[in-house]
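The following block was generated as part of the benchmark described in Methods. Ligand: 5-S-methyl-5-thio-alpha-D-ribofuranose.
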Amino acid sequence: MGLGQDYEALDVETLPARLGGVGAVASRVGADASSWTVREVGDGNLNLVFIVEGPAGKAVVKQALPYVRLVGDSWPLPLYRAFYEYHALVRQAARAPGTVPEVLYFDERQALIAMEYLEPHVILRKRLIAGERVEGLGPFLGCFCARTAFRGSELYMASADKKADVALFAGNVEIPAITEALVFTDPYYDAEMNNHTAGLDPIVAKLRADVALKVKAQRMLQRFASNTETMAHGDLHSGSIMSTLTESRIIDPEFAQYGPMGFDIGMLIANYLMAYFSQPGHRDSDLDAYQEWILTVIEETAAAFDAEFRRLWATERTGMLYPKALFEDQNHDSAPACDAVLAELWQDAWAVCGIEMHRRCLSLAHNADFETIEDEPLRASLEARNLMMGAELVKAADDLAGAKAVCGMARGYNERDFL
Ligand code: SR1
Ligand code: MG
């Protein structure tokens, strides 16, 4: 990897001159770079993001910074994460065609990726906060998770290819380290960068005193760090999804790593649930119906995931795992094996789901679903429901009866007052 010795962060002034000579960008935006207009729109935690507009069209340019943008240069972060993001985008495009933006250009030394500008897509989290319904969201995201989980695993891939890919992504050390700390560990003790809403102290104390909860969260960290089943997106929250009212795409896979097949779907459902619990902070009218719509999306996502995973099991099981030679060729049904794989996958998913619900309220990097609720006592009471349900999900993950039951559980927590 070229490690960016001549790296220089772009800005709105320098970008046209620096990328004007790149054919793939110029042909998308316009040949005369002096006519380009550039806006920096990055509102995430890590990177620079520019929208570049010219006479021929628009493109997005994302560039890694050598530190965590959210915190500043006191927290250095390697530029090479752009290399993994690029490789993740290429794999996702192959494994789940049509789900990610087209890559126009990648410059490893400058840690930048130029890609398709998605229009009129908006970050899904913003739509959920605004109470907008996105058609087809559940089936789209369920299929994406199933296809990337299945086709990135040795259920599908040749072992040599899978192992080479695991080795490639194993070089991405610091990014998973963020998840290992911020997601799996920090919520459960008084870590330095943590913060939580005033008023939540009794709930936080209860969670941090719950040894069974901590044991299970650490067990999930162990699985996350050591179980390289498939290439996970690694950060599949509603800020990593862009949607129109009828169509969606997945962005931002810089946290990609080989990990458990249930990781992405679990994190995604956690973000739906946080959208669900936060709704009373965003609207009075349409509240019940909108919350029910979110629960429908959860059920549809899980159903689409299972259906697509089973379809791929039946039609694309070409890897070394559960080979047809052992099952179909012997007239033995492989469906019970698929049931067992899915059951274990969902156990991981529900536990990850609960942990993600905790980290977004307790550690660094909260989400706008709760953070934009200005009424602190209200925010605390909604976060308390989310935190308490998260604890039940983590501890009961092995015994849950599926998404319908989880949605029923959410309705119950949504009625309760914990403070
Ligand atoms: C310091 S990075 C904090 C969070 O931002 C990213 O989007 C990931 O979710 C990460 O956990
Ligand atoms: Mg991101």
